[in-house]
Amino acid sequence: MRRLWLLLVFIFSAYNFYGQTETLPVEIFVGTENVNPAQKTIIIYLTAIDAVWGGKDVSSTQINYYLTDEFDYLAYTVPVNNNNQIYWAGLDFVLSQTYQGYYPIFGYGLYKVTTNESNAYFYLDYRDDRFGNYSQYSPVTFGHDQDIWIKYDDAANKFYLKSGGSFEWGDPLINGETLNIWDIKQKGSPGTERFPLYLTISEQNGHPKLTWNEFNDESSLDKYWIYKKKEEVYFTKILETDSLSWVDIDEEIVSGPYVANEILAKYYVSAHLINGQNSLPGNTVKARIEGAPQLKQMNSGKSLKSGNVGQFSLIQNYPNPFNPSTKIKFVLPVSAVVTVRVFNAIGEEVAELVNREYTEGIHEAVFGSESVSGSLTSGVYFYTIDAKGSDGSTFRSVNKMMLLK
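Below the sequence we write its predicted structure tokens.
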């Protein structure tokens, strides 16, 4: 009876604290088991590995969503001797910027869950804009039924999870396993259309197509900036646009089984504002794309350095986009006279990089914007190769590259 009275007091107090239009906390309860020695400190961390959104109640039916970095790294120290689940606590999910609770707050994000005591980890995905209001969706979920419980078994070095309303722990979680809140709560596909700059990727005519949601403050928006990287360490801005979608015609999507020359292209979108600042970036998406052709040795056993490649090829420049210089590689199956030129977007020649005879094999030319007479502006450029082989064969090809200053 005492426990029931305490629960009623908590519900009444929370209702008055948040007000009628603000959503009560949804929680992740955290506990431990088999801790040795018993007084050892166990800390559970939630680390965001991509964009995180917050939500603010405007009314009982309307929520404003916004990108935030306030919930990127959370730590909860588990009290010792907390085997009684009635007294477990942990982390709160709320839809109020004014919430002043006792526990760390998490948001709509993809989190890696770890501990200070081991290398055990798993992922929790809360990127569902319906979460916090699951009582409005079938099957109806409210109160503690929206919560989850996480247990760390120190002796076994394993995490366990159970959903609200269930008193049974599942099997130990596998390292690296990803759990989605919408699957845990049986809510079907997640809602993401209300997250600003939420990015999805699809295929259009064999190319990656990016589609993203509007920025939440359109009055301050200048342009959307698209960032991309392939094998580079850092992302590079490749486009400014007013649109909410874009097709990367420079890349060809790979589907089905693994292909030897495939690589990953990754993208994200941010909002460039009229005050010159950028918003926080949205989520990152990736696509399997075709990389440079695989160059194989011939049966003679000669290495690529001495030639013996099967066909002419003009390889995509690297880095791309570039500033101030980039490397252009080409492959010759026989010795040939080669000319490599660079043109601007209206067809004017801006540079002749090479014009001489080369032996068979892989060769490289360097294009530097600073070495060209006159100033080159940011934008798309084309580079061409014309080759006449010693055996009478000919080869012509063109590729596109982008200069970003």
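The longest strand covers residues 262-273.
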